[in-house]
Write a structure and sequence with these properties.
alpha+beta, three-stranded mixed sheet, 5 helices, disordered N terminus
């Protein structure tokens, strides 16, 4: 190394070859990126977003204290997926803002919310759709005393039975696919319009 420096016209007076090699070993040992600490186990929270499908929406997952524990963006199919620590304090709230509603071509008029009340240590992934029905269900659960599993179940049933427009499945936990997307969009667009007109 010293010879290479001398060949390039640089001199390193007073520094011996052993010192240069020692410095090289110290620098090589730094920045390996390894960590002796164990990584925190995670679970995946994901689902669909929209009254109509929302693409490029900003997804924020917060824990019971309101601290952000994960973020993502909805994809071209209006789906999102976020890894969160299994140690997060429940309930988790998923909020989706911005993006474009593929039915209207506009940004959503209000944030979409959903909640996770299932212990993350018992699952690897959970479906949590965010739509107008889930947004209302989260607000009803809060009014019932807080977003607990029991209150959210009651709230989902009440909202679906009162405003579900014939929706036959849970708007939060049921995976949206080709077999149910039309009824999900119909019910959620109708509820979104009610919310817009009530504002």
């Amino acid at each position: 190394m010293v010879q290479q420096l001398k060949m390039k016209g640089w001199s390193v007076p007073g520094i011996g070859l052993a010192a240069v090699l020692s410095l090289g070993l110290v620098v090589t040992g730094c920045g390996g990126g390894g960590s002796s600490a164990a990584s925190t186990p995670t679970a995946t929270v994901g689902g669909s977003a929209g009254d109509g499908p929302i693409v490029n929406g900003t997804v924020t997952v917060t824990d019971a204290s309101g601290a952000t524990i994960g973020t993502a963006t909805t994809d071209a199919n209006a789906h999102y997926s976020v890894k969160v620590p299994v140690t997060a304090t429940l309930p988790l709230t998923v909020t989706i803002t911005g993006g474009i509603d593929q039915v209207t071509g506009n940004a959503p008029d209000f944030p979409l919310k959903t909640a996770v009340t299932t212990a993350l240590s018992t699952i690897t992934a959970t479906n949590a759709n965010a739509n107008p029905l889930s947004t209302l269900a989260v607000e009803v659960a809060k009014a019932l005393g807080g977003v607990t599993a029991a209150n959210l179940t009651t709230a989902v049933a009440n909202v679906r039975n009162s405003l579900g427009f014939g929706l036959s499945f849970d708007p939060i936990s049921t995976k949206i696919d080709g077999t149910n997307v039309a009824s999900a969009i119909k019910a959620n667009e109708a509820v979104a319009e009610l919310i817009r007109r009530a504002k």
